[in-house]
Amino acid sequence: MENVLDASGLHTYYGASHILHGVDFRVGRGETVALMGRNGMGKSTLLKSLLGIVSPRRGKVVVRGRDVTGLETSAVIRHGIAYVPEGRGMFHNLSVREHLVMAARKGWDGRADWTYERVLETFPRLAERLDNMGTHLSGGEQQMLSIGRALMTNPDLLILDEATEGLAPLIRREIWRVVRHVKDTGIATIVVDKNVGVLLDLADRHVILVKGEVVFDGGPQQLKSDSSILERHIGL
Ligand SMILES: Nc1ncnc2c1ncn2[C@@H]1O[C@H](COP(=O)(O)OP(=O)(O)O)[C@@H](O)[C@H]1O
Ligand SMILES: [Mg+2]
């Protein structure tokens, strides 16, 4: 079956710094892929390279069989990708309701599974804060709004970069609950997160980056049965 995403041979630079060194990265339909690696290894840069936020100098990005290499980010995401970036603070003077309503769109195939009502059912906290301005939300609520907004675009692939970073345990649990729910509905996900335990339990496949190169690509069983891989590359 056709992959949702197929990237090959990606080389990305920031000025003269060569960050990604020929990365191959794919995501199958409905697959949950954990993108792992220590800080500064190139995880966020890989995600940005997939989305055209930074332009890889070499390599190719294919979304559902279409070459999107070099396209504007807005064009790439129209092929069915939703991105929740690292950090928050991207909320302007809009209410929660406005944020969600503005994000609403059908999937590339006309799917409209994720509606305003469904997002509010999924995140009851947001339903209680509809008239709040995005900037007046707690960190956890902002993250929920980010994810809610991403789901409103009815993506095939949801990308979460450190979505639980800096959040209280209760809010983290809430976010993981939603990620599992999203997985159960058949949406593919790329998850970057520090909580390796959760990732081992959640992901179908794990990709580990070291200095901009893929050093591991395999299933959770493989990582669980050979603890030296995580020790060496993640430091556990
Ligand atoms: N905008 C940027 N300009 C220059 N260097 C950057 C920029 N963003 C990230 N880097 C560098 O690229 C490398 C990879 O960073 P990043 O992709 O953010 O890693 P990760 O997400 O795995 O922590 C790091 O050495 C980082 O310092
Ligand atoms: Mg990062």
From TrEMBL:
It comes from the Bacteria. This is ABC-type branched-chain amino acid transport systems, ATPase component. InterPro entries: AAA+_ATPase, ABC_transporter-like_ATP-bd, ABC_transporter-like_CS, BCAA_Transport_ATP-bd_LivF, P-loop_NTPase. One of its GO terms (molecular function) is ATP hydrolysis activity. It comes from Paramagnetospirillum magneticum (strain ATCC 700264 / AMB-1). Gene3D superfamilies: P-loop containing nucleotide triphosphate hydrolases. CDD domains: ABC_TM1139_LivF_branched. Belongs to the ABC transporter superfamily. The lineage of its organism: Bacteria, Pseudomonadati, Pseudomonadota, Alphaproteobacteria, Rhodospirillales. The keyword Transport applies. One of its GO terms (biological process) is L-amino acid transport. Residues 5-236 form the ABC transporter domain. The keyword Transport applies. Keywords: Amino-acid transport, ATP-binding, Nucleotide-binding, Transport.
